[in-house]
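The aim of this short unit is practical: by the end, you should be able to scan a pair of folded records and say something sensible about each. We start with the first protein, listed as its amino acid sequence and then its structure tokens.
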Amino acid sequence: MRVLGIDCGTEYTGYGVVDLLPDDRLHCVDCGAIRVSPRKPMPTRLAQIYQRLQQLISQHQPDRVAIEDVFYAVNVKSAFKLGQVRGVAILAAANAGLEVTEYAPLAIKSAVVGYGKAEKHQVQQMVAQLLKLAEIPEPPDVADALAIAICHLHTAATRERQQQ
């Protein structure tokens, strides 16, 4: 199974494409961040994020898309902007015929680190270890996107075992 994990943000939107190999190893296919200028109008930023996500979906052909559920925002305006980015990510996946699964931050951290209140650096280190990466993914949005993909792969594998 191949999953595209997306960590939505108004300046950096992290992405990570992760495969679950037949021997249950995880493999990072691609990862990075879509950086948009905060000086540009929001519709322009949303269009850039949407277009890049479409390219990634077309290039990597994931089986599923996983994103982080909104949990809190510093203020209402930030929450609305984040919601718009999430909407664009969901739309890009839906237009490609892909199912989208959303995970709470607590669930993501639990799946990757084993502790729902783990710090950002702990998530980064564990993602690097699980994927056998030479370096810790930067910016942190990239590690978060990879963690979201890993969370989905672990959750899907567990569900599959329970159904057997």
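Turning to the second protein, read its sequence before its tokens, just as you did above.
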Amino acid sequence: MTHPDLMSTPRLITSRANPTFKALSALASDPRAPRCEGRALADGIHLVASCFAQGIAVQQLLVSESGQQHPQIAALLASTGGIDCLLFSDALFREISGVATPTGIAAVITIPPLPADEITGDAVLLDAVQDAGNVGAILRTAAAAGVRDVVLGTGCAGAWTPRVLRAGQGAHFGLRIREQADLLTTLDQCRGLSIATVAREGTNLYALDLRQPAVWLFGNEGAGLSAGLAAAAQRRVTIPLAAATESLNVAAAAAVCLFEAVRQRQK
């Protein structure tokens, strides 16, 4: 642990005209910025602490004037000496955070490089899942279910945008995430049983043997999986629902499927 005496003195920023504020605001608001710049904004005490716990490279720490009085934030700052620290007025910090009542600390982190090795075990492939909350929730569920590889196709919400990071609650840092991937090519290279989740006319989820590695395909919130991906999968599976129910939210469906596999493997 770095000695508190080495903690860098925060630089106060109070103007929207400040170039640093403008750059951070763009990083927070432009969904293309994280991958283009190779850095992301992790907002909140839990996420910042997770970054340090998982050994994620932190480029800068951002703190609000009121946030620096928070005991947990003060403790984090005292243990992270040598990292450039910026102090913002509460109003400017709220603009960067995008949260109505932010906790008062965020970190600019280096996005881990795309994994180069092939996928050999369980994996989740997302086809145009556009809602940031859904993508983050699926990442969190995948990590909790022991799945390491998540592949996002074109049209998905950016994995490293602030909203997805918040919804993932630190799950990102234990996953190998690929973005903007050609899912058909990825599917062809995976070794596990490929399973397309469809709203109807698939095999009953609970009748499928999931004790082997599985590559799960989840589709867009409205349109579902593309026809090409559904046809390329080795199995089509449907979650049985009550008669009057049309479908499940994609994040909920992912949780049901992944933890059915966990259940079967624990029997």
